[in-house]
Amino acid sequence: MTTVKDVMTRGVRSLSPTDTVQFAAQAMDELAVGSVPICDGQKLVGMVTDRDITIRSTAQGLPADTTSLSQVMSEGVRWCYEDQTLEEAARQMCDAQIRRLPVVDREKRLVGVLSLGDVAVKFSAEEAAQALRDISKPAEPDRRGISAAAGSTAGGATP
Predict the structure, then answer these.
(1) What's the CA gap between 88 and 102, in Å, rounded?
(2) Which domain of life is it from (predicted)?
C-alpha cells in the first residue's frame, strides 16, 4: 500500500498570512509554481494561487505591495495526512478538482504537497488519465457579482 509520504514533494516553501501579495508573486515566479501554502508558524491556514492574486487582488485594484495574503488567500483548504493511502488522497483531489493537495502530519503541521504529477508517477497510465479527467472536469462559473469586464456573454455590462 502506497502512502502519501512515499510520493509527496517535501521541503515545500510556505508563506505567512502577513506577507504581501507582491512577495507571493515574486516567490511563485522564482519557484516556477502557481500556488503556495500559507502557514502560521508550521500550521497550515490557507493557500494562495496565482488565480487568487489575479481575481482577489489585481481585479479589485488592491495594491500588491501592501495587501497581505490574509486578504486574498483561500482559507479552509483541503489537505491530507502524510500517512493516508495515495488512493484516498487522489480521490480527495478528484472530488475537489484540485491539482495540488497540502500534506500535514498528525499535529497538522505542513510537511509537503501532493501534486497530480506525484500521483501519476505511482498510478498506472490508465488510472492517472482517469484522475486527470476527474480533476479537470469543467466547473460552472460563478455568476454572482459579475463585473463589467465580463462583457455581455457572461451577463456583465456591455462597454
Answers:
(1) 14
(2) Bacteria
